[in-house]
Amino acid sequence: MPWRHAAAAILCVLPAWATAQQQPYKIAFIDPLSGPFAAVGEVMLLHTRFAIEELNAQGALPQGRQFELLEFDSKLSAQESQTVLQAAIDQGARAIVTGGSGSSVVSALVQSAARWNQRNPGKEVIVFNHSSIDPELTGKRCNFWHFQTEANTAMKMQALARYIQKQPDIKNVYLLNQDYAHGQQWASYGKQMVAQARPDVRFVGEQLHAIGRIKDFSPYVGQIRQAGADSVITGNWGPDLNLLVRAASEAGMDLRYFNHSAGAMPGTVMAVSQAGMGQLTWVAEWHPGQKGVPKVDALAKAYQVRTGKPFLSPRIDLTPRLLAAALKKAGSDTPKEVARALEGLTLHSSIGPVHMRAEDHQLLLPQVVNTIAPVDGEHVTVGWDGVDWGFRTEAVFSGEELAQVSQCQMQRP
């Protein structure tokens, strides 16, 4: 065989990685980097960037290929997110990392990506959603190109309901939530699951409010007081939660709050500590100071050294790692093959094994119910937000324990 024919034959059997090894695999980060929730987006960006830098340093991709991170500001807007999605695609992004813009924005972004993918076979983008926890995204509105790397609303509420089941002092519950899809769902699941766990609990009031626009929550606190509530189920996050806690404290109300991601938001632990009353319980895959997770401790130390910031979200860190594992498993960067490699993938992450359920693309990962409380050296050993308050573990559940029956009817290309 002449040498040129032999060389051509070799090139034909080389994996796609070999011919693309000099080209970076581009990941686009799309989340709020300005406006009232900019601090939240910055935390998510730092976690994503750290994981990508570490993967590149480790040579995690085949053939020496590297990840490249593109950064875009969603401005907490569905329209802006769709605009920057197209900009990311035009710049060569093959995967999108998002989640901190709220479920309505993320849902619009997923739909836009799906439409692009349908029109452009072979040039598809995969959407990784690390924080928007609308169950519909892996339920009735599931999409082959969307992968959820956070426990959804129903899973988180199930964890809280199981905890509340063993808290007899919780009797009268008020539901106060932001007026968008997720806020409405948090209220709905709260009524449903807490009622199942504790049929004796009374729901004494329910209200929705505009997201990110309320500067004074004292009128809402007044209604909570009038209703005789001892606890509040609230899906509020960021400034909306902090201002609620402050207003209740100023009114002298010692309430219990049940939330999905409170401690992950900048300023919330400080707000609770400054309030001096109230007990805020939330649920996440991990919390700082949690015992028995040495891999996260090591990861957190490395993150602190490199960024100068405290580590908080293993799920955001593991999102690019899931992609790297899928790229290696697929042996190709063809979007359809990478997506299929993600289905059913188990990753041995810093928080233990996590499993991407193939039927609906919902990641099954542990959830820890924990309460913001003063450091006492025994139950709370690590301070947060620059104050001597941190997190106390209340209960731990596996992803399998909290998994819900999916209504997804996946349409695969």
TrEMBL record:
Respond yes or no to whether keyword Iron-sulfur is given for this record: no
**What keywords are annotated for this sequence in UniProt?**
Signal
Where on the tree of life does the source sit, at the highest rank?
A: Bacteria
Q: Does the keyword Manganese apply?
A: no
Q: Which SUPFAM superfamilies match?
A: Periplasmic binding protein-like I
User: Ranges for the Leucine-binding protein domain?
Assistant: 24-363
In the UniProt record, the signal sequence range is 1-20
Fetch the InterPro entries from UniProt: BCAA_transport, Leu-bd, Peripla_BP_I
Which Pfam families does the UniProt entry name for this protein? Peripla_BP_6
Q: Which Gene3D superfamilies match?
A: 3.40.50.2300
Instruction: Name the family.
Output: Belongs to the leucine-binding protein family.
Protein name as annotated: Branched-chain amino acid ABC transporter substrate-binding protein
